Amino acid sequence: MNPTNKPADFKTHEYVLCVWCGVTTDGEPEKMIEYLNEELGTKFIYEREFLTLPDTRNGKPVHNSGNRTEQLFWLPLIDVPTVAVPRLQYQIRWWDDYVDHSHKIVPMDILNYYAKEIDP
User: Fold this and answer.
1) pTM of the model
2) Is the dihedral of CA 88, 29, 43, 5 positive or negative?
3) Band (70; pLDDT cuts 50, 70, 90)
4) How far apart are CA 75 and CA 38, in angstroms?
5) 12 partner at 20 to 30 Å CA-CA among 4, 21, 115, 120?
6) Nearest to 71 by CA among 20, 18, 119, 35
7) Alpha-carbon gap, residue 67 to 54, rounded angstroms
8) Which 8-state DSSP code applies to residue 42?
């Protein structure tokens, strides 16, 4: 797990979890967040990255699928109206939408952790 950069007074109900699919940070997530904050005019907070599971077909893993790097970060709720449309050009998704459409490729520990983190 990557360390989170959440402030001590962080409250999940004041933020939306976002996913940037297929993006690597080369070990420098601060640069990614700095770039997004500048481009989208907000204050994202980096959470972590994870690797997706392979797709399955007939219950078997599909060759050469999975292992895609996904980045997770938090967006202040107050910035949602400003970022809602511009985020689409970067293919940044809200966690809830991502999970609704991609839950089969998200590792169970990630699904379970964020289910508790977001809806305690």
Assistant:
1) 0.87
2) positive
3) very high
4) 13
5) 21
6) 20
7) 7
8) S
Q: Tell me the residue type at 119.
A: D
pLDDT digits (tens, 9 = 90+) for 15-25: 999 999 999 99
Cα gap 72→110, rounded to integer Å = 11
Which tokens go with 120?
């305690």
Domains and CATH numbers, the chain: 12-118 (3.30.70)
Query: Token pair of 90, please?
Result: 């970067």
**What is the dihedral angle through the alpha carbons of 85, 88, 89, 90, rounded to the nearest 10 degrees?**
130
Angstrom distance (rounded) from CA 99 to CA 67: 17
Residue spans of alpha helices (H) in 8-107: 29-40, 80-83, 95-102
